[in-house]
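Newbie here. two chains, one complex. Structure please?
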Amino acid sequence: MAAWVPQLRKGLVELCVMAALRDGEAYGYELVQRLSQTDGMAVTESTVYPILARMAEANLVHVRKAESPNGPPRRYYRLTPLGQQRLREMLEQWHDIRTAVDGLTSGGSS
Amino acid sequence: MNHKPVTLTRQAHKTMDDYLQQVRTAMERSSVSGEQIRSVLADLEGQILDMLAAHDIHEAQESDVRSVLATLDPPEDYASGAATSPAQLPPSPTRESDSAPFPTSHSIRPRLSKLAVISALLTGPCVLITFSAFLLLLPATIHRTTHSPATQPNAVYGNGVTIVAVPQIMVAFTMICAPSVVTGLIAISRIRHSQGQLYGLGWAYFGVATTPLLLFIFAPTILLGRPVGFFYMIAALAVSLWLVKKMFLSAMGS
């Protein structure tokens, strides 16, 4: 795989993590599984967990601890109002970028 | 997924801890906050246990943990993941499932709970406070149990000392002895939830139990007066010493 492919993917992981939390809370491993099963994403835990930790510290996600059947309490993440606002802004940016790139790659001007 | 909790053998636990410690070391080199590191390690530990449970493993051996770790990212990946924003991240190294998942040079060992030690150490001042209180209140006890008139000098002294000493003893007890119990209880909770990473349960029990034991010995002694109180004190001391000996042995073993 060319080196720029993971680079491109990782640039979008934060957006994808927030988008995955848009419909409700999820715990870390659940998010990793959800994102890794998304075609073209192929992200792993070493990318997702530090992002979740940074987002929690920036108050973009709220962390709730709940009992796990398998061991220590699970940490469930959900978007805070600030996180939802950030996601809306990122999606707007993403939409603009995608439109521009689509325009360039299809040979037209954006 | 089966809902029986996963337990790890001692060696399996050590293997998992080694990996987590290397992730911690990698993240610490990236100068991320301690809270972020704790968050990542908690998620990662949960994932490892979930993956073991998904394989229907309930008592994981070292080989089970190694199999799971072999499918995870190498610890050094967390340095890059934590240090920069996603847009600045370098390409991820290829996953090396066939190689050893981590070197063994950095290994985490279970560590003694600091709170358990603090709780146990606070019992020293507690004992001093209790003995001081006992000696201060002794004249009042003697006065009360010998039925001397309240106008006698020793009675006046006893009442005066009681009025002055009791509030001070209560403040000292609250400032020193209550924290000993509270820190001990927190330490017990943390040790039990640490999955073997913390030890010192005996110290924590010692810190929690000493204050109630001191009260058990000296409060009735003061209230009963002599001679019944002193017989009670001897019996209570014997019982307490036996309990302390048990706790000490437990502390040495934990």
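Moderator note: The first strand of chain B starts at residue 7 and ends at 8. Residues 83-108 of chain B have pLDDT under 50 and may be disordered. Thread marked as resolved.
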